[in-house]
Amino acid sequence: NNLIIIPSRMESKRLPGKPLLDIEGIPMVIRVAKQAIKSNSGLVYIACCDEEVYKTAKNYGVNVIMTNPNHNSGTDRIYEAFKNINNSNKIEFTRRHAYYFIKFNS
To answer: How many other CB atoms are found less than 10 A from the CB of residue 18?
Structure first.
């Protein structure tokens, strides 16, 4: 089983508000999540620390989990989300481009 966790935060240093930027009528983070879901690669979650993103994901029917707003990186946010989604100690954690992939075995 694969688990795809998309880190998200509104206070991006390079582009504040990025997760909810409109791309052809759909917030960017939702567009990314929908593409991940469409890939049939595994369960998809958005890991966020902003109520706006959380509510938007819920409204679109996308799995979402709240994380600590004080993380130093997206990797830290992903790790916290992973621990709250699955307590497995057997994980494979890889990064491809802007995506982080976590594979867990039971």
So the answer is: 15
